[in-house]
Amino acid sequence: MADYTVYPGDTITVAERPPIMQPPVETFEIIDRIAEFDKIVNTKPFHRDFINSFGELSTTWPTRKEVTGVTIHHTLSHSPTATAGYIVRSKGYPTTQYSYWVSADDGCPVYQCLRDNVACWHDHTGRLQTAMSIGMAGSLHVVKPSFEQIEACAKLCRVLMKRYGFGVDQVKGHNDRAKLAGVNTVCPGWDTAHWRGEFYAILTGDAGEILWG
Questions:
Q1: Which residues in the chain come in under a pLDDT of 70?
Q2: Is there a domain that residue 18 lies in?
Q3: How far is residue 91's CA from residue 41's CA, in Å, rounded to a whole number?
Q4: Residue 72 to residue 91: CA distance in whole angstroms
Q5: Is 19 inside any structural domain?
Q6: CA angle in degrees (0–180, nearest 5) for 96-135-126
Q7: CA–CA–CA angle 174, 175, 180 (5° rounding)
Q8: Which residues lie across from 5 on neighbouring strands?
């Protein structure tokens, strides 16, 4: 309450207007490790089947013209650099296949491994790859990810949804997109280890009180 003088000697008391409540600002850090991953590149010619967006044999990934969604994977590993090295040496690809990496380490940090316009192959949807890849560390078809790791992935998805203007319907798992190409995979493991529902509940803000078993 506050007192206000209207005329000399007259004082009225009015209720102060409550402050306008602003929605909390969600802070989220993406750690840029692009330069580090740029050094983990293939020094040998790319495998012969690789054709760039111009229909030519190439030693680099195509350039992504647009981003229409994301594809979530599990990485079967907890080291983004070791995984990148394996992909380069064993598959003959020029870089890692993950645009972003969601760690299971303390705090579940999120790393950017490739620039958003690098159309690395990862989900059986064709050469131009309009969906970016998100790798969640671990064998998540066997061990269910922690609440914190799923939350970190969901926050990253919300950042990318806002940045590129796509909806929840374009946040899919590797198995969802691969199925359309006639390929079966358990990746990212959410149907096998039963965490798909929790992920989408957190992503859409409908999680409420999740009982994590």
A1: 1-27, 42-59, 206-213
A2: no
A3: 12
A4: 20
A5: no
A6: 65
A7: 105
A8: 11
**3-state DSSP assignment of residue 47:** coil
Residue 102 is encoded by which pair of tokens?
Answer: 């969601």
Sequence-distant (6+) residues with CB within 8 A of 22 are none
- Please give the model's pTM, rounded to 2 decimal places: 0.81
End-to-end CA distance of the chain: 49
Count the domains in the chain.
Answer: 1
**DSSP letter, residue 23:** P
- Count Cα atoms within 13 angstroms, Cβ side, for 38: 6
Task: Flag whether 124 is in a domain.
Answer: yes
Tokens 């003959």 belong to which residue? Answer: 92
> Which pLDDT tens digit goes with each residue over 83-108?
999 988 888 888 899 999 999 999 99
Q: Which helix (H) or strand (E) holds 134?
A: strand 131-136
Q: Which two tokens stand for residue 104?
A: 């299971």
Query: Reading across the β-sheet that carries 171-173, which strands appear in turn?
Result: 30-32, 110-112, 100-102, 131-136, 69-74, 171-173
Cα 207 to Cα 60: distance, rounded to the nearest angstrom:
41
Residue 52 in tokens: 């760039």
Q: Is residue 113 part of a domain?
A: yes
Q: Is the dihedral of CA 91, 95, 100, 105 positive or negative?
A: positive
CA 24 → CA 53, 138, 187, distances in Å? Answer: 42, 31, 34
Residues of the domain holding 92: 28-204
